[in-house]
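Cross-posted from the bioinformatics board.
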Amino acid sequence: DAGITQSPRYKITETGRQVTLMCHQTWSHSYMFWYRQDLGHGLRLIYYSAAADITDKGEVSDGYVVSRSKTENFPLTLESATRSQTSVYFCASSEWGADYEQYFGPGTRLTVT
Amino acid sequence: SQELEQSPQSLIVQEGKNLTINCTSSKTLYGLYWYKQKYGEGLIFLMMLQKGGEEKSHEKITAKLDEKKQQSSLHITASQPSHAGIYLCGALNAGNMLTFGGGTRLMVKP
């Protein structure tokens, strides 16, 4: 199906574990983004990518790693999960950049125990 | 860094009533974006405002940008249950990325 998908939709993990959240888009959009959404903080940018093999940090990148070997995929890895990383994570894509319409995935709810 | 404050934080209205959500920036606005999030889902783009005084409408939703006041308002006319959700405003920051407000939770009572 066309669109932007995230997996898993729900994840529970333990402190210290490595977790990878997947994001896949079928539009061949150049830009992809990872956000986290927390009560009291709204939506904050973690990482973004302007094209395959080009990534850059956002506002809250500490503790996260991204890669983009293919245009359509943009996985987000928590190298050693902490409780403060409990959040809802959204992936988004845009054809031209953040200043154009972004298409959001359904989100992944991550709980770190 | 740029901050966006939305008001009110939450709102409950009776179906058929009009309502307004405000988004105020701590810095000059060079573009203002409105997104809607249904509970438990991702964000959906509503509209983008780029010029002072600009006003856009989509169905029963109208957004305006007041550059001087560094503020945007989102007005819903004759609200319906389908309007329920979280409305977020976003603005471009110095890094040309979007900074989002905290969101306004809207509930529409049938």
